[in-house]
Amino acid sequence: MSVLPKSVEKVIDEFSRLPGVGPKSASRMAYHYLRSPNKDATKLANALIQMEDSVKNCKKCFNVAEEEECNICSSPLRKKDRICVVEEPLDVVAFENSGVYDGVYFVLGGVISPADGITSEELRFKELKNRVQELLSDANTLEVIIATNPSLEGEATASYIYDLFKNLLKEGKLKLTRLAMGLPTGADLEYADRLTLKKALEGRRNI
Amino acid sequence: MSVLPKSVEKVIDEFSRLPGVGPKSASRMAYHYLRSPNKDATKLANALIQMEDSVKNCKKCFNVAEEEECNICSSPLRKKDRICVVEEPLDVVAFENSGVYDGVYFVLGGVISPADGITSEELRFKELKNRVQELLSDANTLEVIIATNPSLEGEATASYIYDLFKNLLKEGKLKLTRLAMGLPTGADLEYADRLTLKKALEGRRNI
Q1: Whose CB has fewer CB within 10 Å in chain B, the N or C terminal residue?
Q2: What range does the domain containing A48 cover?
Q3: What processes does the entry annotate via GO biological process terms (chains A, B) (predicted)?
């Protein structure tokens, strides 16, 4: 005899698959909907179905989009002489929310991580190469900003991208840059890790 | 120009309403589904709709159920001479998972909390009284175990239940008990709060 009705167990099971959601939180979420009036569960259900039906990848940058091209790639206001290569669509959101970047993006779809069975085959390197060629044919200069995370896998992926464009770089056709590493705003030197301090020292600038 | 497709924003918005889910986690959840293959979002959506369609309250104890009566109330194995009064269905799950109780339950639907605008009117006190009368008519003795949380509101609700059954208690028709308060297993006396220590001392037992 199970304690929970089967349909509730199924919802808890689905919620538990979400990142950062354990069985306890998943139960709390399911019971939230059992308590809430106004058919809130149906609202979430409809939103999910609507999202799955309407969202695709932008054919140029592979960010999420409801059209063939995302809002950013299709905007005439965005500079096409710089392309920022990120791991995931959420990284695009982070840049956009900060309002510090006015170029276009490219979403790789992850990082090379042999431990997780993700090889370069799984990521969009071929598409990245095509996109860079496409932008190069329209612009005089192109900067490829590698914005993978400063993790082991992110660094490995950055090297892979560097190799990918080594020849074009030698030919002087493009510029390859990597996001700066150093102390984050508000950090306390005392608590900074060794690698961050090393990078901050290496990257020190004249004032 | 919004960064996110509208359908994604809608899903994030719905996820943010869940208890303990902030905007960042809600985004991560939505993007999890955008990344995942196998129509996982539809699976959650269908599970939610199925749950909302099939789950109702047990007519006896108001626990969640897919039938008129929940698995516990309808089981001939459960003792009907004790009823454990809890706040929420998840409290029933906690008791059941621990396997320490073999009686029936009653789910109040919350606690009296004037600060949140929840008065005794909103809770199932009338239904509790009826259920207790019903059990009394079948059994020689009945123990009402008050298992509201040891919070201010839980204690106030426990007092209210005591008042509710004061007369029956005087007539010797039932026994009213409250869960023991004291040190939890594995606790460290050094870090126990004053009230817990006080309750542990007050409730000390001969060994």
Answers
A1: C
A2: 6-54
A3: DNA recombination; DNA repair
**How far, in Å, are A50, B12, B97 from residue A16 at the CA level?**
22, 17, 18
ipTM of the modeled complex: 0.77
In 3D space, the residue among B173, B176, B178 whose CA is nearest the CA of residue B139 turns out to be B173
Name residues whose C-beta falls within 8 Å of residue B121's C-beta, 6 or more positions apart in sequence.
Answer: none
Q: Are A29 and B19 in contact (CB under 8 A)?
A: yes
DSSP state of A117: T
B1 domain residue, yes or no: no
Residue B159's CATH number: 3.40.1360.10
Is B71 in the same domain as B122? yes
Q: How far apart are the first and last CA of chain B?
A: 72
> Cβ–Cβ of A51/B71 closer than 8 Å?
no
Asked whether residue B1 carries a pLDDT value surpassing 60, the answer given is: no
pLDDT tens by residue, B53-99? 999 999 999 999 999 999 999 999 999 999 999 999 989 988 998 88
DSSP β-ladder status, A64-65 and A56-57: antiparallel
Which residues of B fall within a CB distance of 8 Å from A43? Answer: 14
> What are the Cα distances from residue B2, in Å, to A70, A97, B5, B116?
10, 10, 7, 36
Partner residue opposite B89 with nearest CB, options A17, A18, A34? A34
The whole-number pLDDT of residue B161 equals 96
Q: How far is B31 from chain A (nearest CA, A)?
A: 7
Band the pLDDT of A156: cuts 50, 70, 90: very high
Tokens of B193: 């709060």
User: How much is the average pLDDT of A33-46?
Assistant: 86
B47 touches A at CB < 8 Å? yes
Specify the number of domains making up chain B: 2
Q: Which residues of B touch A97 (CB under 8 A)?
A: 3
* DSSP conformational letter for B113: B
Size of interface A-B (CB pairs under 8 A): 160
| For testing contact with chain A, the best of B9, B18, B31 (most A CBs within 10 A) | B18
Instruction: Grade residue A103 by pLDDT with cuts at 50, 70 and 90.
Output: very high
Are the C-beta atoms of A131 and A106 separated by less than 8 Å? yes
Test A19 with B29 for CB contact under 8 angstroms: yes
pLDDT of residue A2: 65
- What six digits make up the tokens of A125? 């390197």
Q: Collapsing DSSP states into helix, strand and coil, what is residue B106?
A: strand
